[in-house]
């Protein structure tokens, strides 16, 4: 069993981005500029945004954090986004989720300019991805592709099962893994909450991507020997033995599944770090830098 180490892969990707930005700054160009909008005081969101801001600083990007209270209205948030859309000095925009229930996530997503939608959630970017046209790919699926590339995982002709059909991970991942490209060229099965017995499919899979949001869902008896397992899930589980009072768990029962795998991602230290790398790569593209 070998770990698909997100720290190793993301560090390599971010180092290449840092070098590219430094070279362009030396040539007189401005750095890519990412704006993050944070609504409320959700602890996990604070952590995620702080990590993104810190990464921007480390690779030479400019970053701006805009905060709103939970009481912000949808109209006020949309007005802020529209202002950012028209600012030529800003290349990328993310609105950190979750957002308050009185605000429509879809309406906010659709307000963001597709050219600055570095999270890759805008319907135009999603549609272009489905058509295999040039687009900004959702950051987590993109990060997973970059992880597979870094470790030179052969995906061609493999049976790939994806657990979860969200618009953020499962659905785009199913499209990307079926594409005539590498990584890709898989035969893909998409399982979800209404699939009677996902194990029927996962036991046949060469590659399993677990993004169902249920801690420890994928058990050892659902995985064949030599499978490649990518765990997208991350949940906080109460644990009185930890100083924090909780531990992090993925969607995979790592302790029992890992010995059966040829490759597996850890949680934490896997897909989460690759999501940030994907986000930074998207921002680089949005800023007009070449992607090579």
Structure overview:
The chain is α/β, with parallel strands linked by helices. It is 38% helix and 17% strand. The protein is built from ten helices and eleven strands. It has a six-stranded parallel β-sheet with strand order 1-11-8-7-5-6, with helices on one face. Strands 3-2-4 form a three-stranded parallel β-sheet, with helices on both faces. Strand 2, helix 2 and strand 3 form a beta-alpha-beta unit.
Summarize the structure.
This protein has 292 residues and is of the alpha/beta class. Helices cover 38% and strands 17% of the residues. A hairpin with a 7-residue loop joins strand 9 (235-238) and strand 10.
The global form is globular
Helix content: 25-40%
Radius of gyration: 19 Å
> Mean pLDDT score, rounded?
95
Q: How is the largest sheet built, in terms of strand order?
A: 1-11-8-7-5-6
Biggest sheet: strands, sense, closure? Answer: 6 strands, parallel
């Amino acid at each position: 069993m070998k770990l698909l180490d997100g720290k190793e892969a993301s560090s390599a990707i971010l180092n290449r981005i840092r070098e590219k930005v430094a070279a362009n700054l030396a040539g007189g160009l401005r750095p890519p500029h990412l704006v993050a909008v944070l609504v409320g005081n959700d602890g996990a969101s604070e952590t995620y945004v702080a990590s993104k801001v810190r990464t921007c600083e480390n690779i030479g990007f400019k970053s701006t954090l805009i905060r709103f209270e939970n009481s912000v209205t949808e109209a006020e948030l949309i007005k802020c986004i529209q202002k950012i859309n028209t600012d030529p000095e800003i290349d990328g925009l993310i609105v950190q989720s979750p957002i308050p229930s009185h605000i429509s996530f879809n309406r906010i997503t659709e307000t963001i300019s597709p050219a600055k939608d570095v999270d890759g959630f805008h319907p135009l970017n999603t549609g272009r991805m489905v058509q295999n046209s040039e687009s900004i790919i959702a950051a987590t699926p993109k990060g997973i592709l970059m992880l597979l590339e870094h470790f030179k995982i052969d995906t061609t002709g493999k049976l790939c099962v994806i657990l979860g059909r969200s618009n953020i991970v499962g659905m785009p991942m199913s499209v990307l893994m079926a594409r005539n490209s590498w990584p890709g060229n898989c035969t893909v099965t998409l399982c979800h909450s209404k699939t009677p017995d996902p194990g029927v499919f996962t036991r046949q899979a060469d590659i399993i991507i677990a993004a169902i949001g249920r801690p420890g869902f994928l058990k050892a008896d659902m995985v064949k020997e030599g499978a490649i397992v990518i765990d997208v899930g991350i949940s906080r589980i109460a644990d009185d033995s930890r100083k924090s009072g909780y531990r992090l768990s993925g969607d995979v029962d790592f302790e029992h599944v890992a010995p059966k795998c040829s490759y597996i991602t850890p949680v934490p230290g896997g897909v989460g770090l690759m999501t940030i790398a994907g986000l930074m790569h998207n921002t680089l593209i949005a800023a007009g830098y070449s992607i090579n």
